[in-house]
Amino acid sequence: MFGLEKTAARVVAGIAIVAVIALLLFLHSCQQERTAKVEAKLATSQAAAASASGHDAVQSVGNVMGNEQATDTITTENGNVIDNAKGATVAVDPAVRSAGLVSLCRRKSYRDSHTACVQQPAPR
After folding, report:
1. Which residue of 7, 26, 58, 86 lies most exposed, with the fewest beta carbons within 10 A?
2. Separation in Å, CA 98 to CA 92, 93, 95, 121, 123
3. 49-65: per-residue pLDDT in tens?
4. Are 77 and 69 in contact, with CB atoms under 8 Å apart?
5. pTM for the model
């Protein structure tokens, strides 16, 4: 009977080992499934973010183009008003012209781009 108890203890120990291995495999499988779900959710979120970013970029370019068109329209309208104003064909006194350019050149937008505002290098 002593041999039977030894065999039974071995069987129980074997079953316990198999149960522990099965439990470990089950936990590993659950972890892999959880990781796959998180990765899928992350990929979906990244794709949505990329799409939203692309949409924002297109919208920004469209807004800039619209602003440029509005600026061009205002510039054209202003030019027409000035050109068609009474006395537009009369010569402007050079001192008045110079004062006007100096006042415009004080503005950064003119100072950096308008040819009359760009300082020429001193002659050598």
Report:
1. 86
2. 10, 9, 5, 20, 22
3. 888 888 888 888 777 77
4. no
5. 0.36
